[in-house]
From TrEMBL:
<dbReference type="InterPro" id="IPR023401">
    <property type="entry name" value="ODC_N"/>
</dbReference>
<dbReference type="GO" id="GO:0005737">
    <property type="term" value="C:cytoplasm"/>
</dbReference>
<dbReference type="Pfam" id="PF02423">
    <property type="entry name" value="OCD_Mu_crystall"/>
</dbReference>
<protein>
    <recommendedName>
        <fullName>Ketimine reductase mu-crystallin</fullName>
        <ecNumber>1.5.1.1</ecNumber>
        <ecNumber>1.5.1.25</ecNumber>
    </recommendedName>
</protein>
<dbReference type="InterPro" id="IPR036291">
    <property type="entry name" value="NAD(P)-bd_dom_sf"/>
</dbReference>
<dbReference type="GO" id="GO:0050241">
    <property type="term" value="F:pyrroline-2-carboxylate reductase activity"/>
</dbReference>
<comment type="similarity">
    <text>Belongs to the ornithine cyclodeaminase/mu-crystallin family.</text>
</comment>
<dbReference type="GO" id="GO:0042562">
    <property type="term" value="F:hormone binding"/>
</dbReference>
<comment type="subunit">
    <text>Homodimer. Binds the thyroid hormone triiodothyronine (T3); T3 binding inhibits enzymatic activity.</text>
</comment>
<dbReference type="GO" id="GO:0047127">
    <property type="term" value="F:thiomorpholine-carboxylate dehydrogenase activity"/>
</dbReference>
<dbReference type="InterPro" id="IPR003462">
    <property type="entry name" value="ODC_Mu_crystall"/>
</dbReference>
Length: 316
């Protein structure tokens, strides 16, 4: 008989998803993805339906990993102009891979925030100078916060610089981060001498120039996930060693890649698998557009733990 699916809220996801456990899982998953058929990951490039009338987009992201035997689909709406609602709203539908039944509907906004920061942390682990002290966040929204938390797993930053379109949003985030945070008045000021730069804005034209970036810095380029959106200027993409989450997806979805005509040196999974070098002494860019496999692995951890301890969560 068909069972009603569980509903797992964003609050519950945050309690259940351990960042270190997720980092290990996503690192393995990105490696498996880059092994092709042998890795057992099935993940088509996402379908994006533009809702032009309302300046929004709907993404549909199915994925399966045979290693964990996990099957899920994320439905994600991204509306850059939302003001009173989050710009990203998402739901992950977790299905039983043995028979297709729907096991759970999991809040996908929280999963998207957490797993994207962790995917960047995996790239940073391999591509940034191990002696990184200055972090810059360009953008001060949901992803800026999750990236800060994820990167703290790897580095203790002396200074966290923040630039955003509105100074008020940067100031709010700086207050949350505490005394290491510094609000900057320009991108140039924010990135000067920075070891790690994270671009998590909704910019559609380049905001980060090559001449401002310290040679040897590592950049996680996370925004600009449409073919005509950009955060990094062409010369920065061309002069850096460019890594990506998925070559197939970035070649179709990333304006920074497509419009600069840069070469992609490797998928981060190829570095994890030891097939390509981690050239961390050079200026490196990790171009992330987001992968279904990251959602699948996050949802699997959440669902399994929920089934073990879910009923006790409310008491915590
Ligand atoms: N690669 C991936 O897997 C994912 C990428 N994203 C992308 O990451 C970016 C950030 O997402 P969220 O933090 O959830 O959005 P958000 O709406 O919470 O925050 C966006 C921030 O960027 C700032 N901003 C907007 N335009 C700017 C500009 N031109 N210059 C500087 N700052 C600007 C806003 O003031 C705000 O602080 C978006 O482009 C989003 O589509 C989101 C989820 C997953
Ligand atoms: O991977 C995701 O999830 C997203 N990527 C790009 C923007 C929308 C959400």
């Amino acid at each position: 008989m068909l069972q009603a699916p569980k509903y797992i809220s964003g609050e519950e996801v945050e309690k259940l998803l351990d960042l270190k456990e997720l980092l290990t899982s996503i690192e393995t998953g990105l490696g498996n993805y880059s092994k092709g058929k042998d890795g057992g990951v099935v993940q088509p490039v996402r379908l994006v339906v533009p809702i032009e009338k309302h300046h929004g987009n709907l993404g549909v992201m199915p994925g399966y990993s045979s290693f964990e035997d996990a099957l899920a689909t994320k439905v994600v709406a991204f509306y850059p102009e939302n003001k009173d609602l989050p710009t990203h709203q998402a739901w992950v539908l977790m299905q039983d891979p043995t028979n297709g039944s729907l096991n759970a509907i999991i809040d996908g906004g929280s999963i998207t925030a957490i797993r994207t920061g962790i995917a960047s942390a995996v790239a940073t682990k391999h591509l940034a100078n191990p002696n990184s002290h200055i972090l810059t966040l360009l953008g001060a929204g949901v992803q800026a916060r999750s990236h800060f938390k994820a990167l703290l797993l790897l580095h203790k930053f002396d200074e966290v610089r923040i630039f955003s379109r509105t100074r008020a949003s940067a100031q709010k985030l700086a207050k949350e981060i505490g005394k290491t945070a510094k609000v900057c008045s320009s991108v140039e000021e924010a990135v000067e001498d920075a070891d790690i730069i994270v671009t998590v804005s909704f910019a559609t034209t380049p905001i980060l120039k090559a001449e401002w970036v310290k040679p040897g810095a590592h950049i996680n380029a996370v925004g600009a996930c449409r073919p005509d959106w950009r955060e990094l200027e062409s010369s920065l993409m061309q002069q850096s060693v460019v890594y990506c989450d998925s070559r197939e997806a970035c070649s179709q979805e990333s304006g920074d890649v497509i419009l600069s005509g840069c070469d992609i040196y490797a998928e981060i999974g190829e570095v994890i698998n030891g097939e390509k070098l981690a050239l961390w002494e050079k200026t490196t860019v990790f171009k992330s557009v987001g992968m279904a496999i990251e959602d699948v692995l996050s949802a699997k951890i959440v669902f399994d733990k929920y089934m073990r301890i879910g009923s006790t969560l409310a008491e915590k």
